[in-house]
Write a sequence for this structure.
């Protein structure tokens, strides 16, 4: 049996997900990038693009807001490759609006995709990791889960919830070789932040001490570290990667 590590990156074909998959491949990991089933055509094109750039990445569909779909996804990975060693919970969406305009669907979509998904996917891999005495779980949260953001009551709730999940599961995994950590990106240059109206985006960037958005690679580098052997004593932590936008201890 191969001793190559296996990673599952949810939201793997997205802006941050792409950089995360690439950096894990560079570490010698066999990577499965999860994508939303309705976007199969884009995911196939993405995979071809990655291959042309030298990154061999497998793609796997699942709506992570569905528990059953996650069960099937992880079972399919087990059949093709084996048990997941590194899980990066990165799938996320925004439905920004002030509370006055936030309908129930926008609330539920964000909570289901950004928070319930993390339970749905992690539940499928955690026991296997603890049984083998090794595993890495990294949850991608957000600076806005730490400090809130006008128009993001749904998103900030989900992202804050992720860190509660991290701290709890870290305690369950600590004695069993499984670390669980959160990364809290600030504003990173991706399609998600491009969707913010330009005038608002400019004001946000002006308020970042680094005076610029981060790059997806800034997040990928932090995830590479947390998923490596060097980070084996770090668990239950939140690592902000935000250009100084929010500082706490
Ligand atoms: N503080 C105070 N007032 C604000 C404000 C703020 N930060 N932002 C907007 N407003 C005001 C506007 O000036 C406007 O005032 P008037 O009514 O007097 O003109 C009013 O609020 C707009 O209110 P609406 O009820 O019409 O707002 P809306 O439902 O249309 O929502 C919004 C507006 C879509 C939330 C818009 O403000 C916006 O896009 N904000 C940016 C949100 C943001 O940062 N999203 C991050 C996306 S990227 C991401 O999430 C990744 C990550 O992890 C960081």
């Amino acid at each position: 049996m191969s001793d190559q590590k296996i990673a599952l990156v949810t939201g793997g074909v997205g802006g941050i997900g792409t950089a995360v998959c690439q950096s894990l491949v560079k570490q010698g990991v066999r990577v499965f990038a999860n994508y939303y089933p309705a976007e199969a055509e884009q995911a196939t094109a993405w995979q071809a693009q990655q291959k042309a750039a030298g990154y061999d990445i497998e793609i796997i569909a699942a709506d992570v807001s569905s528990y059953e779909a996650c069960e099937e996804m992880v079972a399919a990975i087990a059949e093709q490759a084996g048990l997941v060693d590194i899980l990066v919970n990165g799938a996320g969406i925004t439905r920004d609006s002030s509370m006055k305009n936030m309908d129930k669907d926008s609330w539920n979509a964000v909570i289901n995709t950004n928070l319930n998904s993390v339970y749905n996917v992690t539940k499928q891999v955690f026991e296997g990791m603890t049984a083998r005495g090794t595993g890495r779980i990294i949850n991608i949260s957000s600076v806005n889960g730490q400090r809130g953001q006008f128009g993001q009551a749904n998103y900030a709730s989900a992202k804050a919830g992720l860190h509660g999940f991290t701290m709890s599961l870290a305690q369950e995994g600590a004695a069993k070789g499984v670390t669980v950590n959160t990364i809290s990106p600030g504003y990173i240059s991706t399609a998600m932040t491009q969707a913010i109206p330009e005038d608002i985006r400019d004001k946000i960037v002006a308020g970042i001490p680094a005076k610029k958005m981060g790059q997806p690679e800034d997040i990928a580098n932090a995830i590479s570290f947390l998923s490596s052997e060097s980070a084996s004593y770090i668990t239950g932590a939140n690592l902000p990667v935000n250009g100084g936008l929010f500082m706490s201890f």
